[in-house]
Design a protein that fits this description.
Layout: E1 7-12, H1 22-37, H2 50-59, H3 63-71, H4 75-91, H5 102-108, E2 114-117, H6 122-131, E3 140-142, H7 157-167, E4 172-178, H8 181-197, E5 201-208, H9 217-220, E6 225-227, H10 231-240
Helix pairs in contact: 1-4
Length: 242
Amino acid sequence: MRHPSRPTAILWDFDGTLVDTRAKNMRVNRRIIEEVTGRQAGDFEVMGSQEIYDRAQRLSVNWREFYRLHFGLSEGETDRAGARWTPYQLLDETPTPPLEGIPETLGMVDGIPQGVVSQNCSSNIRSTLSNHGLLGFFRCIIGYTEVANLQQKPAPDGLLLAIDRLTDFAPGVVIYVGDHETDLRTVANTNRELSARGLPVAVIAVAAAYGMNGCEEDWVDRADFRADHPLEIVEIVNRLAP
């Protein structure tokens, strides 16, 4: 793959790529599911342990599919569950520490505009990053509330919105770092849309193999680059620079 120029922006997934949100997200979903279904969370196999929950998340394309497959929610119930995500995220105080090497990496690439494109809620992302002193590194945060319900990842809408806000689609390469196969699909869909519009922008996928979602080798190998530690992303940026 030939890249037209040095990176114009770096975009990050949030959960499992920047911070470890596994325990918090499971606690929040436990509350949501009990409210929406009227049943105990323990009635659902997927809530049996953190390991089972994490694997189900890893194998689901997005949060809507996760709710449908593992809790049998209808579209309307899924919308209700999604509406409860933000308030419960903001109320829950389960620790969500940055992954090792993330603060240093963000500082070393601070000369390039950075943003977040995630299926978490933007207000929770901002709050978490602010608590860790990391919010200042990001000029743009796109969460699920900034994208239509049926246009969540792997649809390209979130990435396109972030690229527009950060670069105004200036010619160049945008890096997207994620730890889920859906992130790779999102990059592919975004590149198809950019090409269809005739825009001189390419998005490259960096597989965060250091991430918390247990990246599977079959999809990591299909990414443009692999990072086994966040600091390797600095090396990737330097390799792409002319």
